[in-house]
Specification:
single chain; 87 residues; alpha+beta; GIY-YIG endonuclease; three-stranded antiparallel β-sheet; 3 helices; 38% helix; globular
Amino acid sequence: MGGFVYIFEDDLHKHYIGSSANVLEREKKHLSRSVHTTKRMKKPHVVLIQEYSTIEEARSVERKLKKLKRKDYITQIINDGFIKIKP
């Protein structure tokens, strides 16, 4: 079963990066405000979803993106529409 990396952005241009095997179900939880990490975001919406062969690969990419902590890099990924980081 594959995995996904997703990026949320809110009205204040804050980002949240996550990964999941079931991205649609995970998105519903985020948007219902039942996930602590995105509960305070102002009108979050998905700006990017990228699929990987396995959930392990997706989680590896998620960790690498979170370690960057660079808003300009995340913005560039969103603008490109593709995550170039390898698992």
